[in-house]
From TrEMBL:
Residues 38-113 form the Rap1a immunity protein domain. It comes from the Bacteria. InterPro entries: Rap1a. The keyword Signal applies. Keywords: Signal. This is Rap1a immunity protein domain-containing protein. Residues 1-17 form the signal peptide. It holds the Pfam family Rap1a.
Amino acid sequence: MQRSLLLALLLPAISSAAPYPYTMSGDKFVKMMGALTSRPDDGDAYMQREKAYSYLDGVRDGTEGTVWCDVGEYKTPDMAYEVADKIAKLPAPERKKNASLLIREQLKRMYPCHQAGSRP
């Protein structure tokens, strides 16, 4: 009984101490975007880049019009390479962070909305 009570009291403290495990870091996004340039005939590298495109599209869809505003200039591949280049230039500790937050921040800087929550 006492062990169960002690475990029940400690579990919330243990679980809140660990950071949420995100699926992709900024470094991983940059690596996935660059895989095809270093191995142009590699099917796995092609798939990695396509996954990075899809990841970017998810962030775009979830934040466009509220965090950043699309000006219709870039398609996913162009935007992905530009965002990956900007993330690659961040300090190493920053690149270890959640890629979705880093992508969102880059989109916000690159394509700000004229007025919060509005499209140009």
